[in-house]
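Q: Structure for this?
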Amino acid sequence: MKKVLLMGQANVGKSALFNRLAGARVTESNYPGTTVDFAKGRMRLNHEDVEIIDVPGTFSLEPKDKAEEVAVRMLEQEKDALVVCIIDSSKIERGLYLALEIMEKGYPVVVALNMWDVAKNGNVKINAPKLEQILGVPVVPTVATRGEGLKELVLRIENATSASIEEVMEKVGGKGGTFN
Amino acid sequence: MELSTDQRWDLVERISKQTVEVGKYKATLKDALADLTVRPAIGIPFAIAVIYGFWTFFCEFAGTLFTDGFFVKIFDGYWLPWLQNVFAGAPTWVFNVFVGDPLATNCFEAFGVLSSGLFLAIGVVLPAIVAFYLIFAILEDVGYMPRLAVLVDGLLHKIGLHGYAVVPTMLSLGCNVPGVTACRPLDTRKQRFLAIALLSVFVPCGAQIGIMQGMIPGLIGWVFLALVIGYFAVGWVLNKIVPGESPEILMDVPPYQAPTARNVWTKLWTRVWRFLKVAVPFVLLGCLIVNVLYMTGAMDAIASALSPVITGVFGLPEETASAMVAGFLRKDLAVGTIGMLAAGGMTITLFQVFTAVVLLSIYFPCLATFALMIKELNWKQTLGALATLIVVVFVFGAILHLIGSSGIGSSAWVPLE
Amino acid sequence: MEKKLSQMKYEEKGRIKVIDQSLKAQIAGMGIREGKEVEMMTKQPIKGPVVVNVDRANTSIGLGLADRIIVEVEE
C-alpha cells in the first residue's frame, strides 16, 4: 500500500493535522527496538486507501535525540513514500530548512503552510503561489485546528512530485557564489 | 544532491527573500505572558500558583464535588444495600469476599471486592484521575509544560535529569503507568532509568492522593515534603553512581495558544481509558487477594513473618502488614486498608499513619507499574531500581521511626468518615 | 564585542557569529544559525538553561551548549 509520511518540527500542529486526515482507525505503534511511539491511520487518496503515518516531530534530519533519530530512520525506510511536510508559517524559514532537507533526498513533497492564521496575525506575508513555483512542489496554506485548507491539501497530495534542488537554486539565483 | 548546513541556509534565505515579507510585529498580551512565565522572578511564583490552583481544583472537583457529593451517596445509599440484598442467599465466604462485612453501612468499611473495591476504583479514584488529567491536558495544550521544563531544568540537571522529566513526573501524580511511558522521550538510558526509578519510588499516584486526601487531609503536606526530599536526595546519589550521560536541554519553547476542546478531549480520554483498563481490574483483584489471604489465615502468617521489620524497624502496628501486602497490588487499596483497619479497631498514632503512608508510597511500585518498568527498562536496570527502593525503604523507615520515637504526633489517629 | 551566548545578559541583543561545528547541524532546525540576530529572553538560576529568541522563535539551550555559540554584541 502507498504510504504518506507526515513530517514536521515540534509544535507546528502536526498531530492536529494527522487527526483530521487519518479519520477514525488510528493505531499507536512502537518503533521496533526503541521507545519511540508513532501513530498510523488510513486516508482516501485517488479513490484508494493509503496509509498515513504521523512521524515523530523532528527539527531537522540531523537528529538531536532519539525521537528524531526514529523520524529519520522512518523516512529512510520508506523509499517510495510521499512526504507531507508541515511548516509553522509564522516560523517559515526554519520550516523550509527541514522541507529542503527532505526534498534533497528525492522524496515527493507537499508543503503544508500550517498556522496560516498565526502568521497573518503576526504580519508575516507569504506568497504561497510564488513559493510553489520556486520549490516545484505543491504548497498549501492550512489551519489544521479549524480544518481550513485540508481539502485542497488532500487534492494536492494526489499530484505531488519530487523536485530538483538544482532547479530551485537556479530559480533563486543561487548558482555560483556559495554554491560552487 | 545534498547541501551542507550553510548552503541550505543560504538557499532558504534566498527563497524567503522572494516569497516572504515580515512586517512589524506587535507583541500581544499572550506574548508578554509567554515571556514572563518563563522568567524565574515571575515564572517560579507563577508555577507555584499554577500548581496550587491545580491542587485546589483537584480537591474540590474530585473530592468534594464527585466523591463526597455524588459517589458516596450512590454507593452507600443504593449500591451497598442492593449488593447485600442480591448476595443475601449466597454462601458466607462468597458474601464476605464480594460484599464484605454484612453489618457495614458504608462502602468504605465493608471491604468486599464489589463494595469497597469498586467504590475505591470508581468513586474515589476515577474522579481524581479525571480531574487531574483534565487540567494536565489543558496545561499541555496551552503550551505551559515546556516553560515549566525550562524553569526546573537547572534543578533537575543537578540530579542528572532533563527539565522535560517534569512532564512524566507530573503525569505520575495521576497514575505512574502513563508516567513511566512518558519517560520515553528522555534521551539517554541513564536519564530514563533515573526518571523511572525516582517516579516509581517517590511519586504517589492520583489514586493514592485521592485516598490520602480523604483519610489524612492534615498530613498530606508532610507526606509530600518527605517524598520531595527523598526524590532529590536519592536522585543526587543515583546521578553520582549510575554511569551514562545526561545531555543538556535543547528545546523549542512554543508560544501560548488557546486550548482546543478536541485535543484536550483526545488526551484526557486516552489517559483515563488506559487508567481504567489497568487500574480497575487491579483494585478488584487486590481486594480479592487480600480477602482470600485473610480468610485462609495466610495474612496472619505474613504479618508475623514481616512483624520484625514492621514493628522493629518501622515502628508500625503489626496489623499494617496486610496493608503492605495490599500495596503490592494497589497503593490506593493499601492506604484504604489502613483506614479500614483503624475503623475496625486497630490503634495507631498519627505519626504511625504518616510513616505508613510515606513508606507505602515508596516501598514498591504497584504491580501494573512494575510490569511496565520491566518492559521499559532492561532486567539489570529493573533490579537496580528494586535495589534502590529496598535501600530507600529501610533508610526512610528507620529515620521516620527515629523521628517518631521523639514522641511527635503520638496521639491516636481516628479515621475520618 | 564578542562573547559567548551563555554570557549575554537579560534582554541583550546580538548577532550570532560562530556556532561550533559540533552543534551547528543539530541546532539548525531550530532556526539558529550564523548571522542571525539573537535576543536573550531569560537566564535561569543555578546554572539552568538560557532561552533565546531568533526569528520570533524561542529556544531553550543548556548553558554548556550556549558556551559553544559566539555572538557579537554592541558595546
